[in-house]
Design a protein that fits this description.
This protein is of the alpha+beta class and 137 residues long. Helix 2 packs across helix 3. It is globular and about 70 Å long.
Length: 137
């Protein structure tokens, strides 16, 4: 079963950067795909990747990460300054971030207006059939 875990910006806004990363990775390690409102800072993304690389083992094969950040290129100077002040005061809530386990997500394709999440084929492991040999009497 596929689980999407939505995390609003408010849930991580007051956490220290290391705690943000730990929280996000804890969900991903449970094979959940995290939909994060907003985006991490560049340093936090780098730390997330570094921590992921340190934690890779047989059970946890890594993450796939994608950020959609819509850009309003035709904004007036006033709107651009307003948006910058809002980001400084409230954090970067524009767009969203997807983080998922590499054993489930094959690829994240993105362009400015949409994101495509390609999943790996999740076949259940084959069950072992036990056959009983009939003994001849």
């Amino acid at each position: 079963m596929l689980t999407l875990q939505f995390i609003s910006y408010n849930q991580i806004a007051n956490l220290e950067p290391d705690d943000r990363i730990k929280k996000l990775l804890s969900f991903v390690k449970q094979d959940k795909i995290v939909l994060l409102e907003g985006r991490l800072r560049d340093e936090e993304e780098a730390d997330l990747i570094r921590k992921t690389m340190e934690d890779i083992d047989e059970k946890f094969t890594g993450i796939e990460l994608g950020v959609v950040h819509p850009q309003d290129k035709d904004s007036s100077l006033y709107k651009q300054i307003h948006a910058m002040l809002v980001r400084l005061l409230l954090g970067n809530r524009n767009g969203f971030t997807i983080i998922g386990p590499a054993n489930i997500i094959q690829e994240i394709k993105k362009d400015p207006d949409k994101i495509q999440l390609l999943m790996k084929d999740q076949q259940p492991p084959p069950t072992k059939k036990t056959s009983k040999k009939k003994s001849k009497k």
